């Protein structure tokens, strides 16, 4: 028992000695690399003959080329040294773990454990090669990462487990689940997504707007349906699916937003008629399914970006196959547009009473932010309980600052009148001043 403290101290000294040896080895290697690089550069310096002007020009040109090559070599050397330092830090962390060292909480930056491998490299920070820049206000670059990612370190480590430069894991469902937990955006990866077998060129525009793409256009691993025929006919099958009949372009999708019944169903042309011709040019459809709204607007020379998730269906891939622009972000994501830029924002069903009130309020203010003065917010079939309409949601919508152009309500009867569910459709305008 008396020898135990002595042995423990010897183990600590041995651990420190091991770390110092590794540190000295890496530093020595870096110094030798720099010395060899510098020596080779000096030895290759040209001899200048001052009495021969043509030779002097040739030597000067040669020197410029060699200096350019040296700069590239120096940049490559800097990159390698930076990678070596990062790997050294990770190695020292692992050695510390092996010997029972504990990392101070302030060094974890909110993570549960010390980062390593690809996750550590993806999260950063990384020193800027040219040092401090006024544009960033720092000399470091932090890759963008959703703050809740720190709560799911084990899952994120699994997501970042792959061989650099090789194929990524087929983990679309796993990745999207992380996004929906709030880990959005996900970190970038240094691997290649799986490509579909037998891929062919897409259908030319504008025929692509109403054409079902070939099955070979996507990878089907993540979905219960393994071809588009299954998706098209899913609307008639039993079971509950998100946007169940959206892939059937010859069904309800074919007639959506073409007519205006004066109540809940607004028509595109009647909505556009509220603004001077040609002034609605670009916009966003939040939770736009397979982007039929964007297709109808594209026929009117209006560009609409469609945000959607892939809930057991290749929604983003299908939108792209139609020649339209998909955006894979959740409803909780800040809209990636600058202030006062969009002419119109549309949302059908997605913004409803399933969203916590404060989250809905933030989302509505974000929509207000990206709309230009005079821009339109088309809220399409928002649903809630009858008891919530006037007591909860009318005050929320009224507080944002929109001007009401149209506001219609009616019962939602698909689950029975006893459920007391209601729809609301509204056309709101951001004030000009």
UniProtKB/TrEMBL annotation:
This is Uncharacterized protein LOC103715629. It comes from Phoenix dactylifera. Keywords: Membrane, Transmembrane, Transmembrane helix. Coiled coil: none annotated. The chain crosses the membrane at residues 20-38. The gene is LOC103715629. The keyword Membrane applies. PANTHER family: S-ADENOSYL-L-METHIONINE-DEPENDENT METHYLTRANSFERASE SUPERFAMILY PROTEIN (PTHR44067:SF10), S-ADENOSYL-L-METHIONINE-DEPENDENT METHYLTRANSFERASE SUPERFAMILY PROTEIN-RELATED (PTHR44067). InterPro entries: Methyltransf_11 (IPR013216), Prob_Methyltransferase (IPR053223), SAM-dependent_MTases_sf (IPR029063).
